[in-house]
Each structure stands twice: as structure tokens, then as C-alpha cells.
Amino acid sequence: LEASEGDVEWQDGKYNVRGSPDQTKSFAEVALMANLAWNMPPGVEPGLEATAFFDPTNFVYPFGSHICTVEVDAETGEVKILRYIAVDDCGPHINPMIVEGQIHGGVIQGIGEGLQEICIYDDSGQLITGTMMDYAVPRASQMPRIETDHTVTPSPVNPLGIKGCGEAGTIASAACLVNAVCDALAPLGIEHLQKPLTPARVWAAMQAAGQSGKEVGV
Question: CA-to-CA distance for 10 and 195, rounded, in angstroms?
Fold first, then answer.
């Protein structure tokens, strides 16, 4: 631009020379010139680099509600998810597909935590569920269709009004699933189950309820 640093200003998406409206460079042009520069001062690498910090005045608070319908096999204790609905609010969606994927992935992770994932140690403290053969992660065939919807409430503490969404599915789904199973088994007098709700654990709880005089039939 053949101008001093003090005369260069950023305006209307371009670098301009004060008082010379014809002397302009776009950010893309500056970046290209910096990346291809061959006459840089000693110790300066080609390219552009900057560091910035943003310190919001408060945390952001995403929120939502998840609900599911389950079926419990009275003979085996197996839990089957019939329907899963998730409604979340993470503010404006910059990339709706990524938001949807984050919710789906989080829900599946929480379902695995609620139904089958567990670290088991032997008497000597050795982890015995340390491989994919022993540690039961969810399979695609086990997953229900996840229905999603959203409300949009912008956060007041950042310029974009956005909130996090990656944790929403994981936090809500395990509790949602366990509560649904406890609700299904409530007629048997079962009020609490420790996750993961493996078939063996659910079956044992139903048998114990049956032995206490409750009819087992879910």
C-alpha cells in the first residue's frame, strides 16, 4: 500500500489508506501476500498468526428435556428403547447438521452408559473390561431412532448468542433411560436401579420383587 502503519485502517472489510480511497487490500490479498512472501525479516516465518482471548461475563446455560419410552422383557430383563425424543436449546445454530450430530452422538453415549458400559476390576485391582471385547459399547443395531427438536434462546454473554450442545445428549440420556425403566418397574415396587441396567441386573431386581410378593410382569 506504500503507506505508514498509522495510515492503514480496517473499514468495510478491507484495509484502506486514510485519505486515499483507491489504495485498498482485502484480507484475502494480505493473507496471500504474507504466505508467499520471500523477503521476510530474519526470524519471521511466512503466513499470518494472531492470538486473541475472549472473557465472557458469565457462563452460558444450555437447557433441554429428553424423554423415552422403554420395554422391559419380564423373562430376560432386557431393556428395549421404543422411542426417544430430545428437545434442546443451545442458542442459534451456526451449523445445524453438527448440532444434530452432537445431540445424536451424546444420546448414544448416554444410552451406552445407562445400559451396558461398566469398568469391572478383579480382587487385585486389575481392570478386566479393558478391551472392546469386554467393555460393551453400544452397537448401531441397538440404537433407537432419535427424534430431535430445538428451541432457540440466544445467550446474552457472547456476540453470537451461542451455547454448547455436545454435553446435552450425554447428560440427559442416561438419567432419562434409567428413570424410564424405573417407571416401567414401579408396579413391582422397584424405585431404584443402579446403572448400567444390564439384563442380569434388571432380571435380578424383578426376581427379588417377585419373591417379596409382587407379581413379575412388565
Answer: 57
Pairing of strands 63-72, 8-11: unpaired
Helix (H/G/I), strand (E/B), else coil: 33:
helix
- What is this structure's pTM? 0.74
CA distance 71 to 154: 37
Q: What is the pLDDT of residues 24-63, one digit of tens each?
A: 999 888 888 888 877 778 888 888 888 999 999 999 999 9
- Joined together, the cell numbers standing for residue 194 give 443402579
Query: What domains can you pick out in the chain, each with its CATH number?
Result: 1-52 (no CATH), 63-211 (3.30.365.10)
| Cα→Cα distances 78→28, 83, 98, 173, 197, Å | 58, 16, 32, 18, 8
Beta strands 8-11 and 14-17, pairing class: antiparallel
